[in-house]
Write a structure and sequence with these properties.
By secondary structure, the chain is an alpha/beta fold. It folds into 3 domains: 120 residues, no CATH class; 116 residues, NAD(P)-binding Rossmann-like Domain (Rossmann fold, 3-Layer(aba) Sandwich), CATH 3.40.50; 183 residues, no CATH class. Helices cover 45% and strands 11% of the residues. It is built from 16 helices and 12 strands. It has an 8-stranded mixed beta sheet. The chain has a two-stranded antiparallel ribbon with strand order 9-10. Helix 13 links the parallel strand 11 and strand 12. The protein starts with 57 loop residues before the first helix and ends in a 7-residue tail after the last helix. The N terminus is likely disordered.
Length: 488
């Protein structure tokens, strides 16, 4: 698909309102209209989700500690010292924490977690016993004493966790959290009815986010829940009802990001073959938490990788930068650097830097012209810089500033983000991740005047399956592509 087939209007238009152009897909683009545009919705920046009261980790960490101390007391006095207790406790806390056992599902039961707790406790005690036997053979723990200590540990930790989880269920029933249900009004109405009839799950629906059924009113079901269809309505509902949870029956990455920015905990209902204990459900509806991108392991390492590579690259590329700047100055006159507004993570605007390869006739052309490849006004120097991608080198400074990452969806101008978000479902969801110098779409040849739909699909696949190693692979593939440049 080329630019002509994307149905981009000839003049800039307003950013799409939620629910327009994409059916039930609201799209993140509606959150960040151009500066000064009417109806702009301000969303809290980098606001972390409010912690769920019933999922605090401290009581369950204490339960692990009590279980280890009680189990150690079963052993002889020679073994009941810090040299044994501390290693076992450290292992148990690391293993249970890594498995998410300190933040269990909203309505899980202690028996559901017994296999996971027992297996990790067994690993911890066996490693500790092996360590004692290796370094102090005269203090070796006999098999009977080891089994007794293990049994005490498992029984006590399950008993304490049962008390903690039972109290959380009572608190959740007495103080349910306001929630919005996202999906088709029929399915959403049934889920909301189940949540109302079973308050022990701690979910109190206050509205449905979706598109009203044909001929239907903007209220749904016997409870008269309002149906919200625009970001403005969602904005008001979240504030007025102190919404803490958003429950998704349909996939909508852009809307997930919106609620996460509001500080809501996001949940996905439905689907099969989900990992987790059997107790992780809401009255038979399988659900799991949608973890925000900024909570994923390794994103801090992603930023560290950006700095570690961009800083020395900028220094090493300094002679090349000076030569490029000199070539642009001699061929095209003053104004070596080209500054252009682009849309970054969460729809925020930033100024992208490039070497000037063509001087546009006015600001409108700069903001709305899709591709300048083959333009006769482009000098030989500008054409060379574009074909070799050397015009992108100043963006290393954008990476160091934190406007961009080395790897991520390529940033686009606000005008085209607005238009493409109307045409391509999921385009706005690309802004869940920091934009990048290169990305998965680019290493598959999707640069310049290529299919926007394909780029969108690759970008969202990259975000959904992100890992630090994949970033390294994409950077290596990009370096290989520089050997056979094609331009952009």
């Amino acid at each position: 698909m080329t630019t002509e087939s994307t149905s981009v209007p000839s003049s800039p238009g307003p950013w799409p309102t939620a629910g327009q152009g994409q059916g039930q897909s609201f799209g993140l683009a509606s959150l960040a209209p151009p500066r000064g545009a009417p109806g702009r919705v301000d969303v809290p920046r980098h606001r972390r989700p409010r912690a769920r009261t019933r999922s605090g980790a401290a009581p369950l960490v204490v339960a692990d500690a009590l279980a280890v101390v009680a189990a150690a007391s079963v052993l002889s006095a020679a073994h009941h010292d810090l040299r044994l207790v501390l290693p076992v406790l450290a292992l148990v806390l690391v293993l249970d924490g890594h498995a998410g056992l300190h933040r269990p599902a909203a309505h899980v039961r202690a028996l559901d977690e017994l296999p996971a707790l027992a297996s990790r406790a067994g690993v911890a005690w066996c490693l500790a016993a092996a360590g004692v036997a290796a370094y102090s053979p005269h203090l070796a723990i006999g098999p009977l004493r080891l089994c007794a200590a293990y049994a005490v540990h498992v029984l006590l930790v399950c008993a304490v966790r049962a008390l903690v989880i039972g109290r959380r269920r009572r608190v959740a029933k007495a103080h349910p959290r306001s929630a919005l249900v996202v999906g088709g009004t029929g399915d959403a109405r049934r889920f909301a009815a189940a949540a109302v009839q079973h308050p022990e799950y701690g979910v109190r629906p206050v509205g449905i986010v979706g598109v009203p059924e044909q001929g239907g009113a903007r209220t749904s079901g016997e409870a008269g829940l309002p149906v919200l269809t625009t970001t403005e309505e969602i904005h008001r509902a979240v504030i007025q009802n102190t919404v803490c949870d958003a429950v998704f029956l349909d996939d909508d990455p852009g809307l997930v990001t919106l609620f996460q920015q509001y500080g809501c905990t996001t949940w996905r209902v439905g689907g099969r073959h989900q990992d987790g204990p059997m107790g992780e459900h809401m009255w038979g509806y399988a659900w799991h938490r949608i973890v925000p991108l900024d909570e994923r392991r390794g994103l801090t390492a992603k930023r560290a990788l950006d700095i570690a590579l961009a800083a020395p690259a900028l220094v090493l590329a300094l002679p090349v930068l000076l030569l490029c700047a000199l070539a642009v100055r001699l061929s095209d006159g003053p104004g070596v650097l080209f500054r252009q507004e682009r849309v970054g993570q969460y729809g925020r605007h930033f100024t992208l830097l490039k070497f000037r390869t063509l001087r546009p006739s006015d600001d409108t052309e700069s903001a709305t012209r899709w591709n300048v490849a083959g333009d006769r006004r482009m000098s030989a120097a500008g054409s060379f810089l574009r074909k070799t991608s050397l015009d992108e080198l100043p963006q290393l400074w954008n990476v160091l500033r934190g406007d961009m990452s080395l790897v991520g969806p390529r940033p686009e101008r606000p005008y085209f983000v607005a238009q493409f978000s109307k045409v391509h479902a999921g385009y706005a969801a690309r802004h869940r991740m920091p934009v990048g110098l290169t990305g998965l779409a680019q290493v598959h040849g999707l640069r310049g005047d290529t299919s926007i739909e394909d780029r969108c699909r690759f970008d969202n696949h990259y975000i959904d399956h992100w890992s630090l190693w994949q970033d390294v692979c994409i950077l290596l593939r990009t370096a290989a592509e520089l050997v056979r440049p094609t331009g952009s």
